[in-house]
Amino acid sequence: MTPIIALGFLFLTIFLFLVVFLFIKKYTPQFREILALTRLARSLGLSVEDGKRLHISLGHSSLLDERGGSAFAGLSALRIISEKTSVSDMPPVASAGDAALGLLTQDTMQAGYQAAGVEELYVHTTSRVTGLTPFSYTVGAMYIASDENVSTNIMLGHFGAEASLLADVADRNYATLIGASDNLAGQSVLYASTQDALIGEELFATGAYLDTSSSHSASLIVQDILRWLIIITLLGGSALKFIGVF
After folding, report:
1. Residue 243, C-beta contacts closer than 8 angstroms, at least 6 positions apart
2. Would residue 222 count as lying in a domain?
3. Residue range 186-242, pLDDT digits in tens
């Protein structure tokens, strides 16, 4: 029964995405302002003007379990960031704590340079696997944040309590910190360490706010629709249980 429900949910998601995608090609959706993402968009331009570097940390999640969603959200943002800052004198650096995620990081950054028409400027060493355990990854990422003229640290992915180390480095170097995690401990650290925190599903909205393409906007709207469908289903099930139908 469970596989059938999961398959039905998948087909529903695809159907909703196609409908919304076709709809918003005619009408531009308006999203609420998220201060952290507004600050992030501003940081992209400032890094190019000031000749400073962005550091995008994608965490240490595996792509083969439930933590992979946050990694893919980070990769989506990385693709847009690398395209918009590809002509900078100090190109962005991305760090990952998983081998497979590291390979995708390289491919994603290269795709961003290709989209900007400057693929020849891409340097493979700007995409790095800095460690394969949470703390070894964080120590390697701390070196980038402190020693490579970084003006903004962007943390999007799976982080635990070790995120406090990166937050401390950003604070000591007077660098802007923007981040979100799918882990409660990591989210707590980032909420306390950033001026404008990304909370919960705002992590998955990053791509849509940085890029106004129809696909990103459609994915964000579908998330909202599915969220309301789940809420209605839970409330409806509770009501039916209360009146004795089940």
Report:
1. none
2. no
3. 999 999 888 777 888 888 888 888 876 777 778 888 888 888 888 998 998 888 888
Query: Which CATH number belongs to the domain containing residue 61 in this structure?
Result: 3.40.50
- Sign of the CA dihedral running 188, 194, 199, 202: negative
> In angstroms, rounded to a whole number, what is the distance separating the alpha carbons of residues 222 and 217?
9
What does DSSP say about strands 150-158 and 127-129: parallel, antiparallel, or unpaired? Answer: unpaired
Residue 226 lies in a domain: no
CA distances from 156 to 73, 92, 95, 153, 193 (A): 7, 15, 11, 10, 14
Decide if 63 is inside a domain. Answer: yes
Token output for 30: 């308006």
- Maximum CA extent, the chain: 67
Q: Is residue 87 in a domain?
A: yes
Q: Is the whole model's pTM more than 0.90, yes or no?
A: no
Q: How confident is the model at residue 11 (pLDDT cuts 50, 70, 90)?
A: confident
Domain residue limits at 107: 34-210
| CA pseudo-torsion sign 112, 133, 142, 71 | positive
Q: Measuring CA to CA, which residue among 161, 151, 155 is closest to residue 203?
A: 155
Tens digits of residue pLDDT in 95-110: 999 999 999 999 999 9
Q: What pLDDT digit, counting tens, does each position of 123-178 carry? A: 888 999 999 999 999 999 999 988 888 989 999 999 999 999 999 999 998 888 99
Spatial distance between the Cα atoms of 122 and 83, rounded to a whole number of angstroms: 11
Q: How many domains does the chain have?
A: 1
Length of the chain: 246
